[in-house]
Amino acid sequence: MRSARIRPTYRVSASPRSCATNEAAAALPGFAGLHPYQDEETVQGALELMYRLERALCAIVGVDRVTLQPAAGAHGEWTALRMIQAYHRSRGDKRSEVLVPDSAHGTNPASAALSGFQVVEVRSGPDGRISLADLESKLSPQVAALMLTNPNTLGLFEREILDVAEMVHATGAMLYYDGANLNAFMGVARPGDMGFDAVHMNLHKTFTTPHGGGGPGAGPVGVKADLIPFLPHPTVEQSDGHYTFDFKRPKSIGRVRSFYGNFGMLVRAYTYILAMGGDGLTQASLDAVLSANYLRKQVEGVLDLPHEGPCMHEFVASAHNLAPQGVKALDVAKGLLERDFYAPTVYFPLVVAEAIMVEPTETESKATLDAFAAALKEIVEQARTDPAALHAEPHSLPVGRLDEVGTARRITAYLTGQSEDPVLRWKRVQK
Ligand SMILES: *Cc1c(COP(=O)(O)O)cnc(C)c1O
Asked: Domain boundary residue among 279, 302, 323?
């Protein structure tokens, strides 16, 4: 999806057939017309769906319970860290640090800081994976948790994850799984079995909801038994086929989202999981990994690949070797737009200079992957022969190069009621 063709069709994260089905399910009047103030007795079907989705997600990631409330991955991270904090405090343990690898998504340190923790960075080794020696040196009784995504943002599987879990748990800290990369091994391996205590999932990355379309997302969080008392309330409980919201949870961190989360996303995810089945989800992950490796092989020799393969569901290339021509990762991305491709993420992760992160997903055909590789080759060729032409791209789209920095500054100027001069510092507006 992150590299899907932008014309003539715009694809989303599941097979077109099931995507349409999931949208149709979410639009059913019985779901779409619900009011959050309705009496429990009149929304038994919605509660049953939430209950069943929770059970399905527990099975997929290997945890004991899940809260469906968080509205995004970052919100899920924050929710989980608050639970981990409440857990430590309930034991009279005031741990103040959260460890985050240098390859982590920016939301990881942000969530930790927002929860009141000091963020301590753990370095990657030369192979792009977390350095156990550096981890060892940062672990202490002050550490509340290590946040990790596996495969990491370089698309590399953290092979020493069982050792990492043992080291973290030996100091009394917890292990948090950033589940944004769950696409790589659904139905193949489970973070819960690797030793993770809390896990977020991005329903808008892994379970069909279109990502980046401007709509709402959902970032459910799964936890192992130790963290269950701290789950946000209400939870959905079932007894004799009757479903209820449980607000009587004395150790709960409280509500983290108005009402019960973005319910429409939950309907889409549940429909998708049922339509795919366990085997289908496994196949989706295997296909996503195959697509990424197939494409990675074609990119070898075109762009620099700083880490050894094979990769998981994504890989990171670098455009640094185009620097002599004055061509940057941004120019490659714009060139892809000109050639009808949705540009991949650039300049992330931060540990790779001029990074270009490609995640083809399971939905793209071999023909699309080949066309993408051909477009990349053409762009790199053009960078060598006529970099000025590349700098002028895209020219066949409604807009060309946008003045992003200027726009950000002028918006700030507008919002603060100041002139159009660059506003580089935030000031309180006097009303
Ligand atoms: C997308 C992403 C997140 C944050 O998820 P949002 O739903 O965008 O808040 C966190 N970590 C990684 C690795 C991601 O790719």
From this structure: 279
